[in-house]
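Task card 7
Instruction: Convert sequence to structure tokens.
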Amino acid sequence: MRILITGIDGFVGGHLARLLLSLGYDQITGTTFYPAAQYAHLQDLNLDLRQVELTDDAASIALLEAIRPDHIYHLAAQSFVPQSFSDPWGTLQNNIRAQLNLIQGLLKIGLSSRLLVLGSAEEYGSIR
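Output:
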């Protein structure tokens, strides 16, 4: 089974990759925001790390075509709350565009991959 973890360089992505590897999944590709060489916490794992700009539709489609994943865990997003307040439009544009590019890429290529999009309770604001 081919697995794609977008945002594998984040806190959750690294833990998810370790869990999946421990369960016997060995074809894991992860996308990173910066060059893969700078992620020391992932270097000991047998992963295919790729620096991809997911807001670029052509780059997203090329990634999906190359990997043809069975499962996608979409973790790549701008999730830093202070940044979302200082640049709300940039946050929305980044988060929506990357997710939409993955969905449209799957449709364009004709893949029936399972896509899990993760979020945060922070999306809903403070609850009193």
